[in-house]
Specification:
The chain is mainly α and 261 residues long. The protein contains 16 helices and no strands.
Length: 261
């Protein structure tokens, strides 16, 4: 489990915060590209060891949540993620096909989505788990999280049209709209589409659930760290929220505080 943790790269939002703290204006697109390049470099460096590691991390027998088994599954999935960048996802597809537990099934699916593959596996996963709300929350979220930055807003919008998307359910709302702001490069895409989409949904949610809308509006809190163009679009989105007739006190106070900052 520790090896799996060490092999995971820092998140892009963390990188942006670190750069800002050091006096730099973070560029989400450059951060994303650099992180992608580093993932490939690490994968290439580990290439001789990955097949053997994947074989050793196979857990035989019935599913068990014990620490040793969980650690092996965690390291297996990290190794699959790197391996997918070398073999086009062949090992991840095999793992998904033979998975006898949801953790491996979902983790290998995520590995495929991260390299732009896995659409047939995505459909099969939905067919199997569509009756489980918590699992389907993960299914929604991973599609947004793994989407390419120039497609994140479009993927999010498409998922809001899905028959199982219930925006009045807080967990389902967060699994899609929350995942939008969690995709750093996608949310901060230079087009501003992510900012506008989030503002649209916060305005829609506010009359029904002002507390959740206010909490999720904090995705705009980091606006001062970015370049002037992104700042202008984010401030515009916050101003549009503030100008909404009948806005709740919760969201009004939060948006007003962020604009003042």
């Amino acid at each position: 489990a520790f090896r799996a943790l060490v092999l995971r790269l820092p998140g892009e939002d963390d990188m942006a915060a670190t750069l800002h703290a050091a006096g730099h204006v973070p560029d989400p697109a450059r951060i994303h590209a650099a992180r992608q390049a580093l993932q490939i470099a690490v994968a290439q460096a580990l290439a001789p060891d990955l097949p053997g590691l994947l074989a050793k991390m196979q857990v035989a027998g019935p599913y068990s949540p014990d620490a040793q088994s969980a650690g092996k599954r965690a390291l297996q999935l990290v190794a699959l993620g790197y391996h997918a960048r070398l073999d086009g996802g062949a090992a991840a597809r095999d793992a998904h096909r033979s998975a006898d537990n949801m953790t491996t099934s979902f983790g290998s699916l995520a590995c495929l989505l991260e390299i732009g593959a896995g659409q047939s596996e995505l459909a099969a996963f939905e067919a199997k788990w569509r009756g489980d709300r918590l699992v389907m929350d993960k299914w929604f979220a991973v599609q947004v999280a793994a989407s390419a930055p120039d497609q994140t807003a479009a993927v999010t919008a498409r998922l809001t049209e899905h028959a199982l998307f219930d925006w009045k359910n807080p967990n389902r709302f967060r699994s899609v709209i929350g995942a939008l702001s969690g995709n750093h490069a996608g949310f901060h895409h230079a087009s501003g589409a992510g900012y506008e989409l989030l503002a649209d949904w916060l305005i829609k949610l506010d009359p029904l659930n002002p507390q959740t809308a206010a909490r999720m509006s904090t995705a705009f809190e980091s606006w001062p760290r970015y370049d002037a163009d992104r700042q202008a679009i984010m401030r515009g989105a916050l101003q549009r929220i503030m100008a909404t007739e009948g806005l709740s006190r919760d969201l009004s106070e939060m948006a007003g505080r962020m604009l003042a900052g």
